[in-house]
Amino acid sequence: MRLVVVGGVAAGLSAASRARRLDSSLEIVVLEKGERISYGACGLPYFIEGRVRSIDDLTVYKPEFFERERNIRIRTRTEASAIRHSSRELVLASGERLRYDRLIWTAGARPAQRAPARHDAAQCDNDARLFSLHTDEDALRLDKFLRDKAPKRAAVVGGGYIGLEMAGALRTRGLEVTLIENGKDLLQRGDAHLTQTIVERLERCRVEVRLGENAGDPRELPHDLILWSAGLKPNVEIPAEAGVELGRTGAIHTDDRMETALRGVYAAGDCCETNHVVSGKPCWIPLGTTAQKTGRVAGANSTGGRERFGGVAGTSIVKVCGLGVGVTGLSENEARQCGFRPVSARVEAFEKARYLLGRKVEVTLTADAGSGRLLGATVTGDEGVLARLNTVVAALHARMGVEQLAGLDLAYAPPYAPVMDPVLVAAQQLLRDL
Amino acid sequence: MRLVVVGGVAAGLSAASRARRLDSSLEIVVLEKGERISYGACGLPYFIEGRVRSIDDLTVYKPEFFERERNIRIRTRTEASAIRHSSRELVLASGERLRYDRLIWTAGARPAQRAPARHDAAQCDNDARLFSLHTDEDALRLDKFLRDKAPKRAAVVGGGYIGLEMAGALRTRGLEVTLIENGKDLLQRGDAHLTQTIVERLERCRVEVRLGENAGDPRELPHDLILWSAGLKPNVEIPAEAGVELGRTGAIHTDDRMETALRGVYAAGDCCETNHVVSGKPCWIPLGTTAQKTGRVAGANSTGGRERFGGVAGTSIVKVCGLGVGVTGLSENEARQCGFRPVSARVEAFEKARYLLGRKVEVTLTADAGSGRLLGATVTGDEGVLARLNTVVAALHARMGVEQLAGLDLAYAPPYAPVMDPVLVAAQQLLRDL
Hints:
Chain A is an alpha/beta fold. Chain A is built from 12 helices and 22 strands. The longest helix of chain A is centred in the C-terminal third of the chain and has 15 residues, at 288-302.
């Protein structure tokens, strides 16, 4: 039995490792088109910022580790070009054909083609000023440019996670930074208040923010450096051609065992859509943590397991010039689109005892007016964001109501949290408003 | 209608404030036997340590605030001595009789009589070296002693929260410290590993720890300063004499509306037992955060509300010489006593990306082998303890199983959390062992 995994980052390596753990006799081959496996792509902005000295520090494991310790064959610089499922063969870019019994597709996502065609991120070599930050090669090239050319003015195009982190990272490297976002909102939550909070922090760090502005042709931007981070799209073309079903999000549709419409072909990670535990609907939220979880499930089931992936809550957290910004569940706008009647409460509260120099966090909770069910949260602050966010994440997975949330026995001690945790203060406020 | 509240700290003031919010016409009187209301007793060790300059910084509100802003009458230095419920009268220590329509008893707890009788904490004036740390007066007296007498060697008797915090606080003030605990365990969880972790940290900070040792007669201890922090007992004698039912824990038994066996008499805070959401059994875990929640419920129901208190998970967190120690739910020992078949998994994992200088946290999860239901957790570490602990708290309230816990969509970003949060790593480990 041979398992072939396409993609050697979070989802692929989780899948391969899990398969190996459950089946010691399986032949396992992982194909990675890049040079490195297992690097922490989410750490690339911190490499650019200068807090991580070498890109190798982001690499959790080297190929030799998998080969030696886990008996998993790793083939880097190896790209798939077609799936011939009737004959259970993967066609590689080199022309080689690789037979599989089980296939796990974890080919990830790539920068969306939202830049003008000749200058999109995939072709950024056309303009030496134009960069994306999707792979380690991108990061190395950008770092070299920063060192060699000492650019003064940068434009960051796109107000998602990478854009926000990179705006801060480039400020730290001393550049003047302008952030240009096509839409009216940052982080695509349709949340004007959240956008305002982030804009204020960016402006305090002297990042110029331009919302609702199309960056247009990057050749016409006057900046010395252009970071194009305007969205991603899933790498689905090859499995789609082979008959794998795509969902309405455009990403691969799987069942909750991560199996695609082709029996024996699984998919995991950024190329897949997942179920949202609050809306109950498919969503495409490509993140490393989901990649690792779905990879594990795909790996287990490829060896005959019966594991299920329970879905995502739409959680994310990002640091924007020192400000922690966390979201989970549905925003008011998203909740309305899903047929809920959202009501929100927003509070500012200390994250720990004021007399121990506690800082304020802002917690916004959203619930359904009809049922009292908790739907989502936004948490922002310089300290203490993660604890509040993850409390709500657990509550969302449990389909908790606001009343139960308001009664949680959350930890209290002056150096860690106030007697009423900000989540409880917000829940009590929301109970009054429901 | 007159509501009388006995006790002017967390539970009492929450109750009075909530009653006022729901009923603007009620006459509300709060009796406090001490000089101050609303002080943060949990902050007293930080005052001793020197991080809080004035005890007034711990006081959230002054009596004038409640009188002026909330039309709540506050009588400090006013002690109750009996309840005459048939005539709806409270007898005060002064002999005065105060009529009530509704009564909320929030008289808290006091140091247990575990020191030799003539030297117990209530009579510590007998020996100028002997202190407890239960009220602001205690803290002021201790601080003066530290400044005036410059003691060199301190004995801290009792390995609960106050003892652990005070061992650290007295080290910070430069004293040699010996911690003496009667039992074999610190924090009374019957958890040898947790005890070992805490002992190691204490010893690293050069606190001498003596477990399983009876401190005996404090007169015979050779130390310059003795802090007696060996347990608490609830202030229940007066309501018990009036016919209020006590539970098997020795604290006041109420229904989930916080009403006692006497109709119209409510109780809240440290004098009450509460229901444990995991064991389903009554427990007595006196903590400020529970006091505030039960106070709110009692206050609402005293005005005719129908609110319920959902119980506690047994959560607490304490900082021991810089080490965060958090517990929630049942320890293995407690779980066994409650009829579960506990299985535990323990992992060490980074609390955020290693390449951003993440520190290790240790997470121990306990679940029931039969059902897979999560029963409790212990989290220790220098950073990142609160987020992991509170995630589990929410899961315990939701009666979550380990499998669902392992799939939570917890937040991930390098400066905040690793791609697999330590809670998820522990849950995955536990799933293997169940």
